[in-house]
Specification:
alpha+beta
Length: 347
Amino acid sequence: MEEKARLLAQEVNEKLSNVSTLEEVNELRVMYLGKKGPVNELASKMRDLTVEEKKVFGKTLNSLKQELSDNIEAKIKFFEEEKLNAKLSSEQIDITLPSTKIAVGAPNILEKVIEEVEEVFMSLGYDVVDGPEIEEDKYNFELLNIPLGHPARDAQDTFYIEDERILLRSQTSPVQARTMIAAGGDKPVRMICPGKTYRRDSDDATHSHQFMQIEGLLVDKNIKLSDLKGTFDVIVKRLFGEDIETRFRPSYYQFTEPSVETDITCFSCKGKGCPLCKSTGWITVSGAGMVHPNVLRNCGYDPNVWSGFAFGFGAERLAMLKYGISDIRTFYNTDLRESKVFDRRDV
């Protein structure tokens, strides 16, 4: 029996030395160590041995199994490592080759400008507030001192959805009205509301049927026009540089009285006159004014006790002025070739 075990080990090892693939090794393992293999066949013959013979042959049989298993596993490991090394060799990367340039997007300047404005106002204690883009006529017009029949309500300018009562907001001013009403008429308000607005307009290089507006509101006691001027001085210097000056020009808006347009010195020519400012030395960036008493009253504030100022400007216009972009459609174009205009600037 022991001689058979020795010869069996010799036979398996000889065949292992001649295999050339991992599949052949696995076939040998099944052939010799499987349930119907010669090793198990030897084990079945132990029942015919005496107790002493079983002890001796059992030890020999266990050694045989261990030897064959170790040799087969070593051969399997050899072929697996060989296969892995061949794969690594075929997938080797030459790091000296030039890399492939992949077109990627770029930071959107419009979003950057909005974030810059938000950061400046938050540093002054303002809250950033959001509101619905589908709005009621009540908040978009009525509470803001824009009565029925006013040209601003014309369907040619406004996207009405239902019976001229529900519409896509034409400005972010409704958020101001909602904020004042929520404050209850007895607490100060200091907020800005960046967001999308919608108006019927033909899309071209300088106009869009949708655009980002940034409006702000401050309501408190003893607020004056000089407070608005001081606030704008801080904002434009933060956004455009410390040497930028501001000026107010009389204007008219339904929801402010008095109303002004805000100009800043041209940051391109520093006020000397250039094509950007149309040789005036000034650029108009915002409409603003003191909150109309009717608006305060409509939103729950006593205009004899409370006062405030409001302002608004287009985010696209700020970005176009600051970064020299000539076409407003660039902000909404997903063509990566168009986004290269952003890559060339410090964004």
